[in-house]
Amino acid sequence: MQILTFTSQKGGSGKTTLAGHVAVAAERAGAGPVAILDADPQGSLSDWWNERISEVPVFAHTYVSRIEQDVAQMRGQGIKLLVIDTPPAITETIERVVATSDLVAIPTRPSPHDLRAAGATIEIVERLGKPLVFVVNGATPRARITGEAAIVLSQHGTVAPVTIHQRTDFAASMIDGRTVMEVDASGRSADEVRRLWTYLSDRLEGRRPTRLAPDLRARPAPLIGAA
Questions:
Q1: Beta partners for 5?
Q2: Who has the most CB within 10 Å: 84, 134, 177, 184?
Q3: Is the per-residue pLDDT at 213 higher than 80?
Q4: What is the pLDDT of residues 119-141, one digit of tens each?
Q5: Helices of type H across 40-111
Q6: Single pTM value for the model
Q7: Nearest to residue 97, comparing CAs of 33, 36, 150, 27?
Q8: DSSP per-residue string spanning 135-153
Q9: What ranges do the domains of the chain cover?
Q10: Is residue 10 a contact partner of residue 118, using CB atoms and an 8 Å limit?
Q11: Whole-number mean pLDDT of the chain?
């Protein structure tokens, strides 16, 4: 079983939306059985799942205090992928979840404030020796700051070659327990999520990514961790 965790110290980064969407994309791509785990006390991912008509992905009812035991149980039950959503704060919960993960995805919106806030999350992931990937999320199409954000993030780790753009269909789909793939399978948002899952799947399986990241060699822009 592979464990993919979405985490970020910054609230509003899109962790919950991406966790739900990627879990569904994985299930639809044949990577299941997929389970999702909501480690955020706000319970947004749980609320979304409770609105779903589809029975997949399944919801993992567990407590972070016993995540190691429950992960072992899920593995024994045949779960192939566990996707975890985490709270927007640096807590013991995040450390325990990250410690069990095979890959940590850090969603980051392309703004200076979000980039600075990523530093504490990066520190935890690196201290625990886990591979990480940044996902530029909530981007405005053709906005210069999107490319600049990718350049900044590339100074600190791998940036997913798929950017998730800000569109109303993401928010609309989450209201009733669906995803953009289930609302408009041929839309641009659905295509971005499918391509993001393909990339993350390759990383989880240790394969060379099917799509190479863009050339981000440019002037350093060390906003992360800046005062």
A1: 84, 104
A2: 84
A3: no
A4: 888 999 999 999 999 999 999 88
A5: 44-50, 67-76, 92-100
A6: 0.88
A7: 36
A8: EEEEEPTT-HHHHHHHHHH
A9: 2-205
A10: yes
A11: 87
- pLDDT tens string 87-128: 887 777 788 899 999 999 999 988 888 888 788 889 999 999
Summarised one tens digit per residue, pLDDT across range 177-203 is 999 999 999 999 999 999 999 999 999
Residue with tokens 């709270």: 87
Q: Answer whether 133's CB lies under 8 Å from 159's CB.
A: yes
Peptide bond between residue 88 and the one before it cis (omega within 30 degrees of 0): no
The CA angle 149-165-54, to the nearest 5 degrees, is 130
Question: May I ask the CATH architecture of the domain 2-205?
Answer: 3-Layer(aba) Sandwich (3.40)
- Spatial neighbors of 198 by CB under 8 A, at least 6 apart, are 29, 210, 211
- Beta bridge partners, 106, equal 134
CA 76 to chain centre: 24
Rg (CA), the chain: 16
- CB-based contact 193:22 (threshold 8 Å): yes
pLDDT at 82 > cutoff 70:
yes
CA dihedral sign of residues 59, 80, 188, 15: positive
DSSP β-bridge partners for residue 105: 6, 133
